Amino acid sequence: MVDTEIIAKASARFLACGMGDASSKIFEGSAVVQSGKCSFVWSEYEPKPSSPLRSTVLGLELCKLTYNILRKYEEASMEVARRHVVTPALEMVVEANTLLSGLGFENTGLAAAHSIHNGFTILEKKIKPHQYHGELVTFGTIVQLVLENRDLDTIVDYMRWAHKVGLPINLSELGLEGVSDEELWKVAEKVVALGETIHNEPFGVTAEMVFNAIKVADSIERRVAKLYPRELYD
Ligand SMILES: [Zn+2]
Fold first, then answer.
1. H helices then E strands: how many in the chain?
2. What CA–CA distance (Å, rounded) separates 77 from 101?
């Protein structure tokens, strides 16, 4: 049960962060389906199952539906969130961010994007201003797309969408302008730690691959950010 009156009164940044977090599910869920790994709900219930309970068809469809709603109503919902009112567009995005995204990822799973989020938490004290879960997951999704060797159109399209919502898409926008390669290497090592969901990707992932993908993602993002400037949350 979610009271959209309360959501509407909050800063629009929180809605944007929910959208960033929910937007990763189609990419992470697809990776889990492709690799045939255990679904999230089953891995939580039994970490080392003898026969993995795989994702459901409905789980992946819910991830797709979530993303379709986020793509259709991103501007309308952010506009109303800035005005602190409730409209059907806001209600649809709230349903996508919570119910659809929740059921979707539980019945498929998480992959690289959330591990990349976890890796960046080691720089928490350095990141200024503080970035919320959904903001780091948005960047994690971009790095996942690079890691998966997706075509440039798909990557740029996702970045444009994120910027329309107001979400950060590069290290500078994440408050990490001066981050060193040494620090990024530590992030990459945490990203591939044992038990991280990045190992749900349908191929083996090393710290070096993650480090390189972060560098490539950041350099594409800086160019995209100039062409399609970031909207302000409020
Ligand atoms: Zn999340």
1. 12, 0
2. 17
Higher pLDDT, 234 or 168: 168
> What is the distance in A from the centroid of ligand 1 to the CA of 94?
15
The per-residue pLDDT for range 71-99, each reduced to its tens digit, is 999 999 999 999 999 999 999 999 999 99
Bond into 129 cis (ω within 30): yes
Tokens of 234: 């409020």
Catalytic residue among 21, 153, 157, 199: 21
Cα 24 to ligand 1 centroid, rounded to whole Å? 8
Sequential DSSP letters for 86-151: --HHHHHHHHIIIIIHHHHHHTS---HHHHHHHHHGGGTTT-SS---HHHHHHHHHHHHHHHTT--
- Ligand 1 (ion): residues with CB under 5 Å are 21
Most distant CA atoms of the chain, gap in Å: 51
Q: Is the pLDDT of residue 69 over 90?
A: yes
- Distance CA(77)–CA(75), nearest Å, equals 6
Q: Which two tokens stand for residue 46?
A: 């039994």
Do 130 and 136 touch, CB atoms closer than 8 A? no
In a 13 Å sphere around the CA of 231, the CA atoms on its Cβ side amount to: 19
Q: How confident is the model at residue 210 (pLDDT cuts 50, 70, 90)?
A: very high
Under CATH, which number does the domain 4-227 receive? 1.20.1090.10
User: What does the domain layout of the chain look like in residue ranges?
Assistant: 4-227
The 3-state DSSP class for residue 38 equals strand
Residue with tokens 């996702």: 158
